[in-house]
Write a structure and sequence with these properties.
Blueprint: H1 3-18, H2 24-30, H3 36-60, H4 62-68, H5 72-92, H6 120-140, H7 143-156, H8 161-183, H9 186-224, H10 230-233, H11 235-241
């Protein structure tokens, strides 16, 4: 496998794992009440954060987890628990209220007071603090994406610094794809409306809970070996293999 093939495989795998297209409804719902300028800055922040976070794990690899004595399976279980809690919020509570910011501070007009207005970048800064967890991590960047970056870092080292630079290029390309995908979520927000967003979010929340449970089961099956059957840990893989 040459460097071009390595870049293509790394980019496609990473894009599929982060699945920004699949996360568009959630991002659209979370930013439904935001202005176009705020959404643009928020999209930029998420893309930059994704690039920096993935690059960090690409260059540090397993050394960071080894330093804290954390196994990859333990990391997957922790990520699965966070995803499950996120799924519960999406199915039970008013998930959209978590991200809605009051951009206008309602105060009675007064000669000695000025109405504070949060728009654009200022509003995006506040919203980004809420979207880092759980949207950016672990919904967008989950344990699977992090483990893939670590594995690909090992492959990149075979090509020396050229391989590391190509791998970094694949990560940056993925960040650009995230920015372009989320940049056009305004149309989806307008088409679905609040009722449509609530329906989509609750359905996705149920799916997310099931996905989180599956991640935990799969990780526990590795740790406990024969206690959890392969059919429960990897149901479809077992079915195809039969």
């Amino acid at each position: 496998m040459n460097l071009v093939e390595f870049y293509v495989n790394f980019f496609i795998t990473l894009f599929a794992l982060l699945d920004p297209i699949g996360n568009v409804p959630i991002f659209a719902a979370a930013t439904r009440s935001h202005s176009k300028s705020t959404r643009k800055w928020l999209t930029f922040y998420i893309a930059i954060f994704s690039a920096l976070f993935l690059s960090f794990f690409f260059f540090t690899g397993l050394k960071l987890l080894q330093f804290f004595g954390i196994s990859m399976d333990a990391f997957r279980i922790a990520g699965g628990i966070l995803l499950f809690l996120l799924g519960l919020d999406m199915t039970r509570g008013d998930f959209l209220a978590m991200f809605e910011e009051v951009e206008h501070v309602n105060e009675k007009p007064d000669a000695d007071k000025q109405v504070k207005i949060l728009t654009g970048r200022a509003s995006a800064n506040i919203s980004f603090e809420k979207l880092v967890v759980p949207f950016a991590i672990p919904l967008l960047i989950g344990p699977g994406a992090i483990s893939t970056v670590i594995i690909q870092a090992g492959e990149a080292q075979k090509y020396g610094w050229a391989g590391m630079l190509v791998g970094l290029g694949a990560i940056l390309s993925t960040a650009v794809a995230i920015f372009l995908t989320f940049f056009f979520t305004g149309t989806i927000s307008k088409l679905l409306g609040r009722v449509g967003m609530v329906v989509v979010i609750r359905v996705l929340g149920l799916i997310l809970c099931a996905l989180a449970i599956q991640i935990i089961i799969s990780s526990l099956s590795v740790i406990t070996q024969d206690i959890i059957t392969p059919a429960a840990a990897h149901p479809y893989a077992t079915a195809h293999g039969a």
